[in-house]
Amino acid sequence: MVTVTRAAIEPMAPADVEGWVAALAPGRQAPAVELLRRAAEFAVQAHAGQRRASGEPYVYHAFAVARILAQLELNHEAIAAAILHDVVEDTDIKLVDIRREFGERIATLVDGVTKMEVIQEFKGQTAGSRGEGVQAESLRKMLLAMAQDVDVVLIKLADRLHNMRTLGALPEEKQRRIARETMDIFAPLANRLGIWQLKWELEDLAFRYLEPIAYKQIARLLAEKRLDREQYIETVRTWLAQALAETGIEAEVTGRPKHIYGIWRKMRRKGKDFTQITDVRGLRVLARSVRDCYAALGVVHGLWQYIPGEFDDYIATPKENNYRSIHTAVVGPDGKIVEVQIRTHDMNEQSELGVAAHWRYKEGVAVDTGFDKKIAWLRSLLEWKDEVAEASEFVDQFKS
Ligand code: MN
Hints:
Layout: H1 17-24, H2 30-46, H3 59-71, H4 76-83, H5 87-90, H6 95-102, H7 104-130, H8 132-147, H9 150-165, H10 172-192, H11 196-210, H12 212-224, H13 226-247, E1 251-255, H14 260-270, E2 282-287, H15 290-303, E3 305-306, E4 312-313, E5 326-331, E6 337-344, H16 345-353, H17 355-358, H18 370-399
Parallel strand pairs: 2-6
Antiparallel strand pairs: 1-2, 3-5, 4-5, 5-6
Helix pairs in contact: 1-2, 2-4, 3-4, 3-9, 4-7, 4-9, 6-7, 7-8, 7-9, 9-10, 9-11, 10-11, 10-18, 11-12, 12-14, 13-15
The structure holds manganese (II) ion.
């Protein structure tokens, strides 16, 4: 997917292996860090002289992907595989070399990511000439390849996220194709796995290239009103935090960033126009227990008038990707609408990290999540088809 050139335009700075490994090391034991260091040195050697379309040394991409996964707190083998994920695809290194150097698990992960890449390319070549049927079929094949290992999918999602972050260096036609594929396949997949952190950014980046005018308009409006909005939110936040404390509810209240694609979708759903989006003010309440969540809801509705039809209780009825939270909207000071999400700290972690939260790496803790993992993954697969259908509708709307 990424253009690779061997030609050395200018001498590259020596790779900062120490710095990269240090960034991935916190919370890991010495043998794990040592493995990451070996993977880093191997990748630097393998990608020597290669550059991305942006002109950056290619290996920077490998490390960026590893860091995204480190933020999701994946185990060290998945991180090492992320560092090595393009080595078989883009260099002379063979899978047997990876297996010999790093063992079966890491080789399996690298192989899985490489296969997904091949399937995607096949899809890209055939979709144009033979249409939707082939696309659906290659999608299914891709699914089968992915289904074997959820870590493979997480590496692939992180890979796609970094490619989207650096999409500006590619020609426009390629940007649009990759953005569409991201909106069509990868963002729904991140959503299906419940990984909000990856989902929102994939969506915003894809939206930026698919609908550049709408994207810029919303981004500009958000930027213009930023200071006002932040001051307002801070006032309301302090007010609510105080009211909760007085009621004896221990909770953390924070302002909530709004994402451009989410705003756009909401505008369309509610038939609002761009000038009305300055309404977007969000608060999040993190409580210690479910009971405190409902108590906090009482406090919020006691302070401000709530807006009927804007209330959703995803704690009582979780979303299909297991998202849990209470959503409400109230009329705050000066008649401005404030959206409030109320959830426990656990629910919040679950919603940010999704399936990754289930078996994330905890040093020194025996993790017995094999069963959970299988169940969560199976459920994701079963519901995946609906997501893909929704995403295709979205793409159709763009076409029309
Ligand atoms: Mn890659």
